[in-house]
């Protein structure tokens, strides 16, 4: 089946069932035969429904029976809802709530409230509607109103399904089924199975949906409820059509048609014929499809089910487009447009422009196709405005209906208006005051943030400058030691060696002392500013330092720092990383009582990860923080801060392990 037609038919004819509305209200038992008959005709036979409704409305006016009046308001609202007149529907539900609240009829009030929520689908979000429905559910639960408890759970299931909250939707439907079972409300159980099946169908769980449709059919047959049977078979036919079982789908539609004719259900006759027309189209029988569409048009017009006429015309227009009868297709669309006044404008017009656009595209008339597409876009922008105009019309209608009552209470309303105006002015003043205070607080807050950010930036710059000056001073001292004191010691050693001293042992001792002093000066110079750092780079400088430690001690040194070779650091970054590693090694040598050191460097792209570990007596994060007051740890933290890096001491069974992460592009 063509997706465009299938969606349209699903919207119109996969209707969610509504059980008899007021079972359990004793006062209405005297009208039971007519109410049951009207209930059965509510969706299936508009003409018959209107006749019974008018008879009961006359009784309501004659007897001034407000319970009956409130019930009839709910039925009239439901009738308009099924005719897609949502504004009129909402008006009658409001009227029902007003009547029922005045006479204390809570069940009718909740029934009207549940249905009123459905009419707000173009004014509120599904979440808001679900919240309102949940409030009715809680009220029904507290008042032990089983029927409305089931209806509200059904509404929650529908709204949650529309919001893709699958688990909540299914839970709501299954709870409704449980309540229907406990209360022996089999009619409600049947329509809940049908609605649950539709949600599952939309979710793609077609086989499970079909099982629910079968349950609905079984209950309808057990109760001899023709309406349940008709809607179940209608949806079973849609299932068969979706899995290309055309013969089985046709069989279900024919049974629906037979039941519709037998019981006078115009809507089901019409829906079965329309779906048969679509089925014939998919089976490659366009002539049969067109003939059935003509029959559907005749039935819709004679049965006053005019809100379905545009959809039937759309089906005929689609057929004409497929057979390249483009002018006829456009005429069919014009006919559909003439009947849009009987349908929900926001639902019926988008398919109109969509199909018209496709026809012009297939005709090759790109100018008109573009023009139609623009009209489609303008339509979407104007739907909200149209909704507001319809709402204003309804407000005017309500005003005329209640005009006498408002005239009698005009003085009281004026007083209320003055009080309200004073409250509004006070609220406006309070709102303005809150806004002014909020703005001032915001400005102060932003100023404080800017101050501390600038201060932090200034402090960082100052510390950075001091650190650079210290490194420069260390470099100068290192050069002075190497070039000055170191060279002087070498000269003194050479002069001493040239002296003729008879005591060879004393000469050797002094000569060794000179060598040790010279080496100590060189060592101090290298520690202050390692010459290989600039000459060889960070990786080789660190490797040389680790090699020196291994040569000059009993420590086992393991390094995996090849990643440092490919990392490009500025000089100030390299020297700080070098100093951090140097300080860690010094702490291990002096305090840890370890026998091995391991150093790893990992290039993570924009981050360098350094992992330092020894097997000494250990240091956890708390001890690290306590030790950070020492000069050595302070220097590590300060250098890490300049590098914008982080440190984390890992817990290990033995020894000490610390992980540094340093941004490469800091």
Distance between the termini: 61 Å
Strand content: 5-15%
- What is the CATH level 1 assignment of the domain at 532-663? Alpha Beta
Low-confidence stretches: 1-19, 390-398
Please name the CATH architecture of the domain at 532-663.
2-Layer Sandwich
Please give the radius of gyration in angstroms.
Answer: 44 Å
What is the overall shape?
A: elongated
Give the tally of β-strands: 5
Instruction: Label the structural class.
Output: mainly alpha
- Tally the helices: 27
What is the average of the pLDDT values?
Answer: 79
The main pleated sheet reads as:
5 strands, mixed
Molecular structure report:
The protein has 666 residues and is mainly α. Among the domains are: 20-123, no CATH class; 411-520, no CATH class; 532-663, 2-Layer Sandwich (Heat Shock Protein 90). 76% of the residues lie in helices and 5% in strands. The protein is built from 27 helices and five strands. The protein has helices at residues 3-13, 32-41, 46-63, 66-82, 86-102, 106-118, 126-142, 146-162, 166-182, 186-202, 206-222, 226-242, 246-263, 266-282, 286-302, 309-322, 326-338, 345-363, 366-401, 403-408, 410-498, 504-528, 531-536, 538-552, 571-592, 621-627, 631-642; strands at residues 556-560, 596-603, 607-614, 646-650, 656-663. The protein has a five-stranded mixed beta sheet, covered by helices on one side. Strand 1 (556-560), helix 25 and strand 2 form a beta-alpha-beta unit. The longest helix has 89 residues, at 410-498. It is elongated. It starts with a helix and ends with a strand.
């Amino acid at each position: 089946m063509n997706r465009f037609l299938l969606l349209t038919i699903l919207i119109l004819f996969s209707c969610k069932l509504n059980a008899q509305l007021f079972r359990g209200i004793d006062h209405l038992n005297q009208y039971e035969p007519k109410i049951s008959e009207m209930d059965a005709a509510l969706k299936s036979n508009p003409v018959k429904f209107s006749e019974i409704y008018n008879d009961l409305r006359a009784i309501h006016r004659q007897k001034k029976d407000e319970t009956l009046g409130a019930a009839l308001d709910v039925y009239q609202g439901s009738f308009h809802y099924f005719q897609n007149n949502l504004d009129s529907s909402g008006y009658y539900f409001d009227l029902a709530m007003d009547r029922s609240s005045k006479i204390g009829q809570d069940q009718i009030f909740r029934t009207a409230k549940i249905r009123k929520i459905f009419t707000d689908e173009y004014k509120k979000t599904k979440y808001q509607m679900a919240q309102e429905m949940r409030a009715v559910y809680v009220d029904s639960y507290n008042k032990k109103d089983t029927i409305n408890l089931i209806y509200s759970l059904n509404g929650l299931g529908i709204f949650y399904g529309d919001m893709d909250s699958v688990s909540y939707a299914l839970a709501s439907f299954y709870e409704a089924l449980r309540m229907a079972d406990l209360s022996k409300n089999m009619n409600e159980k049947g329509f809940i199975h049908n609605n649950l099946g539709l949600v599952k169908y939309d979710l793609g769980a077609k086989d499970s949906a079909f099982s629910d449709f079968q349950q609905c059919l079984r209950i309808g047959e057990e109760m001899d409820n023709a309406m349940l049977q008709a809607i179940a078979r209608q949806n079973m036919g849609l299932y068969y059509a979706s899995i290309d079982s055309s013969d089985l789908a046709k069989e279900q539609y024919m049974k629906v048609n037979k039941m519709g004719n037998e019981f006078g259900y115009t809507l089901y006759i019409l829906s079965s014929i329309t779906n048969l027309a679509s089925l014939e189209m998919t089976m490659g029988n366009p002539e049969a499809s067109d003939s059935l569409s003509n029959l559907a048009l005749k039935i819709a017009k004679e049965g006053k089910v005019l809100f379905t006429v545009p959809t039937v015309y759309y089906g005929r227009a689609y057929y004409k487009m497929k057979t390249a009868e483009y002018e006829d297709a456009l005429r069919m669309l014009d006919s559909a447009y003439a009947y849009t006044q009987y349908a929900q404008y926001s639902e019926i017009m988008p398919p109109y422009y969509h199909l018209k656009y496709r026809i012009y595209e297939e005709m090759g008339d790109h100018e008109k196709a573009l023009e139609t597409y623009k009209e489609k876009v303008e339509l979407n922008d104007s739907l909200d405005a149209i909704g507001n105009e319809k709402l204003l019309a309804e407000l005017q209608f309500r005003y005329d209906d209640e005009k006498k009552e408002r005239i009698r209470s005009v003085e009281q309303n004026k007083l209320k208006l003055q009080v309200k105006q004073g409250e509004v002015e006070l609220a406006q003043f309070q709102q303005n005051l809150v806004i002014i205070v909020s703005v001032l607080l915001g400005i102060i807050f932003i100023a404080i943030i800017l101050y501390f950010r600038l201060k932090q930036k200034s402090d960082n710059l100052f510390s950075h400058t001091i650190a650079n000056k210290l490194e420069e001073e260390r470099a100068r001292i290192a050069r002075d030691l190497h070039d000055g004191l170191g060279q002087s010691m070498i000269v003194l050693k050479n002069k001493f060696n040239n002296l003729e001293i008879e005591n060879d042992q004393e000469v050797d001792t002094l000569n060794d002392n000179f060598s040790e002093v010279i080496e100590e000066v060189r060592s101090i110079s290298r520690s202050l500013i390692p010459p290989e750092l600039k000459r060889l780079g960070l990786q080789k400088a660190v490797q040389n330092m680790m090699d020196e430690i291994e040569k000059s001690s009993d420590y086992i040194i393991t390094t995996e720092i090849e990643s440092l070779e490919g990392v490009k650091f500025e000089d100030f970054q390299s020297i700080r990383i070098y100093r951090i590693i140097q300080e860690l090694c010094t702490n291990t040598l002096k305090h840890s009582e370890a026998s091995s050191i391991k150093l790893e460097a990992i290039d993570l792209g924009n981050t360098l990860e350094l992992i330092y570990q020894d097997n000494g007596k250990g240091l956890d994060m708390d001890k690290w923080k306590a030790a950070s007051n020492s000069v050595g740890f302070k220097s590590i933290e300060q250098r890490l801060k300049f590098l914008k890096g982080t440190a984390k001491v890992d817990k290990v069974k033995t020894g000490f392990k610390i992980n540094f992460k340093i941004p490469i592009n800091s």
